[in-house]
Structures are given as C-alpha cells and as structure tokens.
Amino acid sequence: MIAMTKILTDSQFTHIQNLVESYTGIYLPNSKRGIVENRLQSRLTYRQCQSFEEYLITLTDRSENGEFLSFIDKMTTHETSFFREAYQFDALRDLLISSRQSNPISVWSAACSTGEEVYTLAMVLQDAIGKGAWSVLGTDISDLAIQKSKLCNYDLSAAEKIPSSYRRAYCLKGVGTYSDHFTLVPALKKYCDFRTQSLLTPVGSELYEVIFLRNVLIYFSHEKQQRIVGNIINALKINGLLFLGHSENILRDNPKVELVDNCIYRKVAHE
C-alpha cells in the first residue's frame, strides 16, 4: 500500500494562501502553515486524496463547489463561545438599560462564525429591553458556518459559559438522540437572522445601533483592516456602539468614533 502524502510543499501552501485571500481577503502568513496543514487533514481523508496536490486539483474543479465551501470553512472558522469576553456583554446591557431607547434596536454580529455571539446577544437584548424591541443579524464569509448558525444546535458543554439565569430562561435541552445538545427558545431565535457576507463588501443602506466586530481584524492586512473598519463605521448610526476584540486598537485615533470603555466605541457626529 502506498503511504498517503499529507505534507504541504511551499508551492502548495502558496496556492492555498492565494485561494483564501482571493475569496475572503484573509492573508495566511507562513507561520500558519502548520495549522493549515492540520486543519485540512480531515478533508483529504474525507475526499480520499492521497496528497495535497490531489486535493488542490479537487478545489479547482468547478463541479466541486461543495468541497470549496468546506475548504473555506476550515480556513476561516475561528474560536468562539457563548459570552466570550463577558464584560462587553455586561457593558452592552448597562448601556442599553441606561439609554432607554423607545425604538427597536438592530444589532450586527460581523464575522459571527457558528452563531454563539449572535445568540449571546439575543439573550442579553431580551433581558435588557424585552420582547420585540430588537433584532440581530449575523454574517460570516463561511456558508457552512452560517448553516450551523441557523440550526442553533450546540453541544451541551457549550452551555457552561452561559450564566445560569440565562440558561434557565432561554435554553432548551435536547431529548433522545439530541440529549447531549441544546438550543434556544423560539421566542429568541425568531429575532435572529443570518447571511453569508464578506467583511470587505459594503453593507448598503442598512444602519445599526450596535455592531460587534471582535477578534477578526488580526487576520487581515492593514490595508484591508482600514477598508473593513470604514464599512463598519458607515453601517453604524450616529451614537451607535462598536465592540472590538480585546487586542484590537485600530480605532484609537479614528476621528469618527470615541472610546466609551475597553474596546467599546461610540460613533460621533463628524463634520
């Protein structure tokens, strides 16, 4: 039996870098080569490819669009969890309660991965401002991640990150073959929407009171970071809130926003 060759060559990794950047805008530095190699092992096994060369041929086959989507999902789905960086959700809740807005609040979770952030926002919004007074849109470049988000079906272990009061009010444990999973109550899910979208694509005329863009800018070049931030700020209403990841400080000197709290910005009127 011929041993499977599952080692990336320099040229193959360059090919993958080009594919990912052209489709998503994300640049994979050479330091990510080992991660890429490991993430794709399961795809090679599933497709019964004997080498990365064979797998890359499969990716360039136009009839294999489903495999390309799986490839993009492997390259772009990043770590996520319910109530990640929980202090920001506490801050959002306090800001919403203190503002006492009468109009419905629209929230955008950009690069939402598999939906945990969207549903976290749903629980916080429902708790802070009540039924029917909010909506959340989740977007991601990965079509498979969006499909998973819409399912709202998570391992029971993921619920450990959810505060007990929210678990009791909004989470439903599965039964039978789904006894090790949970979902959210329909009353929350109906206010959540999802779509596949690149961060580099202008969002049109839609405006939001709150936008979450966390822990994703680091995967883009500085030039693309500026484009993304421009799109995001344009989609934010005046006095709207923008939440970034704890290590992202690209807005520090941006005149269109002011710092409200740790990695939380408010859009200001700009002459």
Automatic annotation (TrEMBL):
Q: What is its EC number?
A: 2.1.1.80
Q: Write out the entry's keywords from A to Z.
A: Methyltransferase, S-adenosyl-L-methionine, Transferase
* Catalytic reaction annotation: L-glutamyl-[protein] + S-adenosyl-L-methionine = [protein]-L-glutamate 5-O-methyl ester + S-adenosyl-L-homocysteine
Q: Report the Pfam families cross-referenced here.
A: CheR, CheR_N
Provide a Gene Ontology MF annotation, just one.
protein-glutamate O-methyltransferase activity
Q: Which domain of life is it from?
A: Bacteria
Q: Where are the transmembrane segments?
A: none
Q: Which Gene3D superfamilies match?
A: Chemotaxis receptor methyltransferase CheR, N-terminal domain, Vaccinia Virus protein VP39
Start and end residues of each CheR-type methyltransferase domain: 1-270
Q: What biological-process GO terms show up in the record?
A: methylation
S-adenosyl-L-methionine: is it a keyword of this entry?
yes
PANTHER family for this protein: CHEMOTAXIS PROTEIN METHYLTRANSFERASE (PTHR24422)
Q: What role does it play? A: Methylation of the membrane-bound methyl-accepting chemotaxis proteins (MCP) to form gamma-glutamyl methyl ester residues in MCP.
Entry protein name:
protein-glutamate O-methyltransferase
Q: Which organism is it from?
A: Vibrio genomosp. F10
